[in-house]
Automatic annotation (TrEMBL):
Gene3D superfamilies xref list: 2,3-Dihydroxybiphenyl 1,2-Dioxygenase, domain 1
PANTHER family: GLYOXALASE/BLEOMYCIN RESISTANCE PROTEIN/DIOXYGENASE, GLYOXALASE_BLEOMYCIN RESISTANCE PROTEIN_DIOXYGENASE
InterPro entries, sorted: Glyas_Bleomycin-R_OHBP_Dase, Glyas_Fos-R_dOase_dom, VOC_core
A GO molecular function held by the record: lyase activity
Keyword terms of this UniProt record: Lyase
Name by which UniProt lists this protein: Putative enzyme related to lactoylglutathione lyase
Domain VOC, chain residue ranges per copy: 2-129
Length: 130
């Protein structure tokens, strides 16, 4: 077994794709027309880091309850973890792209880490080796 996708509720498909692909360097795996369970049009949008098995399903908020979850899917906690081989290069890339960081990089027993917000406002850890 493996986890193939994790849903990330966003307010706009194209802005989310631009962030994850253009800023973070993910690959766009799929962007296909689809339908909701009740027949309305939507898109099936999947992004993932290059070479990764698990991807993000970028799911556009549908209704007030889902819209309220945009940017707060994990109740204000860090809920996503982006592990990279070259922490400094990825951090510089993200700083230059204007990503919002919540503090400075620090060293922990498990590696280098800094918290950032994605395009929707969710908190992520950028993690790299010590």
């Amino acid at each position: 077994m493996n986890i193939s996708l994790v849903s990330l509720v966003v307010d706009d498909y194209d802005r989310a794709i631009a962030f994850f692909v253009g800023v973070l360097g993910f690959e766009l795996v799929e962007d296909s027309p689809s339908l909701t369970n009740d027949g309305r049009e939507k898109r099936w949008v999947v992004v993932r880091p290059g070479g990764a098995g698990t991807g993000l399903l970028l799911a556009k908020a549908d209704g007030d309850e889902q819209a309220a979850a945009v940017g707060n899917q994990t109740g204000g906690r860090v809920g996503f973890f982006l592990q990279v081989d070259d922490f400094d290069a990825q951090y510089r890339r993200m700083v230059e792209a204007g990503v919002e960081f919540l503090g400075e990089p620090r060293s922990e027993p498990y590696g280098r880490v800094v918290v950032f917000r994605d395009i929707a406002g969710n908190k992520w850890d950028l993690l790299g080796p010590r």
